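Cross-posting from the modeling subforum.

Setting up a comparison between two proteins and wanted a second pair of eyes on the formatting. Protein 1 (sequence, then structure tokens):
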Amino acid sequence: PENFTEDLYAGKGTEIEVVSNPENVNMRAALSGLASSISSQIGAHYVIAGSTVELMITAGILSPADTEEIQQVIAGMVNSGGSSGNNLSGISVTVEKIGEIEAESGINWALTGYLVMFVFFGAAMGTEAIVAERQNHTLERLLAGSVKRNEILGGMFLGIALKGIIQVILFWLFGILVFKADLGLAPGAVFLLSFIFVITSSAFAIMLATLVKTQRSAGSVGTLASLILAPLGGCWWPLFILPKWMQGMAKVSPHGWANTGFNKLMLFGAEFNDVIPEMVILIGFAVVFGAIAVWKFRATVD
């Protein structure tokens, strides 16, 4: 029909009438198939033209009120489609290989999980020495001298923290040099988060030492706390594969916040600012643990 394609693009009603000899079944089928093919190709081109115009309007290239310019764009696509032979779809696909996809290394998750677990475990085990000093009256003799209460607490805290820092340094040296761990886009944030967790673990150890009464109970409670909080906080398996309710439970422990921060940095390409909440909350844990330790500290055996 005359102006068939133009009317179709303009949204007007149009049709293709097939006239054939009813006795010639093969000819009628061939003509009907040809008409359907033409309609399908032009219809597909119409959809492409409409989508293109919508994208141009969204991008601000065309104005919805400028109907004349829109019609010119559609007419141009009609002409290009009609002159392109059988390639009326207006769609072409170009595949370009830019490199191999590298599988994510499991060490980037496992290393930080073990770091969090063993730093906390090492700090918790340090409570035994503190309780032993209280039981053999070493702390009492220090207080009787010129040493102040806060100085004793500070010395115990620094001793445990120094051991934790050594652990962190060894973990990262082996992780980077031997296991080729990828620290992500913000290595500084990874190291800072590690040291903040050392502070939190050390504060927990001092708090625990002020709460337990005997050296044996210090070791038992420290071990139990470490073995419960490690899996709960994502040290034994990634938190992001767990159900939401288990991820929520992990947030009651410093382990959960530390592992969340490490996973963000080393697995999901986070920047420094993205893990500031985790750092602040870990510092909050340390403050709470430290406040309880100062409140409950005693140098004598009950």
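Protein 2 (same layout):
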Amino acid sequence: MLATTWWRAASQGDVKRLGRVLALERDEGWVHRTHFGYTALHLCVWGGHVAATAFLLSAGADPKEHVHKPSDDHVHGISSLHLATRDGHVDVVRLLLASGAATDERFLGRTPLQVASEHGYFEIIELLVRHGAAINVQDTNGRSSLHSVAAWGYARVARLLLDHGASVHLFDAKGTSALFAATESGDVATTKLLLDTGARLHNVKSPMTLHGVFADALERWILQCKDHGALLDLVGRLNDGGPLAALSVLVLNGFVLEALRFVLAVGLHPTHQTTFLRALAAWAMDHNQLTLVQFCHDCGVELLI
């Protein structure tokens, strides 16, 4: 009878029944028994049963114990903290952390903080950070927690991570940063936040990163932001190999030197800047745009008159 009682009681979060099992089997270590690889604590945590989780922890359940189910890669080796984090059980996470759960253990290559970041669980992330979770851990694909929150547009969570030391200069396996993830998603708030914190679009491992989707992502962001008008095409078209096409956008929309400075500072990879500025200077001289000629000269372009 007791063999079936404990796991049913745990699954249902039934504290009274768990108490009866404990009274009868206190010396038999039942809290460490498993049912298809799950301990009673795992089952309580999975169901988000706060009171039952607290009861089991007080009875000696180990918050660091892992699910043992080799036949199922989706759960084999997962910890209680990962289970609670994945399903957003804030109060259960709080109990587990207070009982000494390991904050930086990985499951499927990710820590609980990275899992919480993918879902934007602000309160859970705040708890994990307060308990010393490593902020800049990267998963097997090189993605950090900041990458994930930027990709999903969780600006409030991004601010929390940045306030606790998240780096804007980490790159994933493709050589892209959290700023790339934010621009690709079209999230203006997070993009601005990352730029204000020192992120730059040209801070990438490969100068080719601004091709294709990255250029399009930057274009979408500037469109939404509307801070620099139609100059958005500068970066995208230039890095697709068409500096003169980029200049045509300038011709149609007028030259805003502040916008040009912005594009050069945060958009163009340094290896592209000289080519662009030379083309810009040549066009400016041909069209008697003296202010623009001076701008190019100030940027280091040698003018041939």
